Amino acid sequence: MRHNKKFNHLGRKTAHRKAMLSNMASSLIQHKRIATTLAKAKALQVYVEPLLTKSKEDTTHSRRTVFSHLQNKEVVTELFQNVSQKIANRPGGYTRILRTGFRLGDNAEMCIIELVDYNENMLKEKAAKKASRTRRAGTAKKAELTPVAPIAVPVVEEAEVVEEVVAVEEAVVETPAEETPEVAAEAEEAPKAE
After folding, report:
1. What is the pTM of this model?
2. Rounded mean pLDDT of 34-51?
3. Domain 14-120 is in which class?
């Protein structure tokens, strides 16, 4: 029976799958970010997170255990010297998966898997958000704003406005369109052009 043996086999036999995950984990530790399919990234996340947890404790036993999975001395050295220093205070969740769309050839869902503490852009944004959310910063902004005095608007009576509108309407009605000098000048120029 196959009880409690549910995980993604990735269409590969056991030896091929283990070798592929080992190589992908080595590349992730070495380059801090790799692009792959979503299914492989999820399988890699399950594979590499326990190795990163083991690297927090720098003992001979943990080094040998990690080396048995990765099979690469340079990557193990990088993991225990540099990466473990960055993830020392993080209680898990060392990797992040960012979806990037679909591959053209077979429409497989692609993504980027990266080590969380090595993405400088996201770390800068997080620091900026923390700085702007403090209470003191909010009160300082309120103190900078000064109340503005109301603007005095002159009061105009209705009778004056009505008289002006009537005068303008009478002027428009009294002057017919034919008598305006602009229209007469345009009418004289039109036959000359033809």
Report:
1. 0.64
2. 97
3. alpha beta
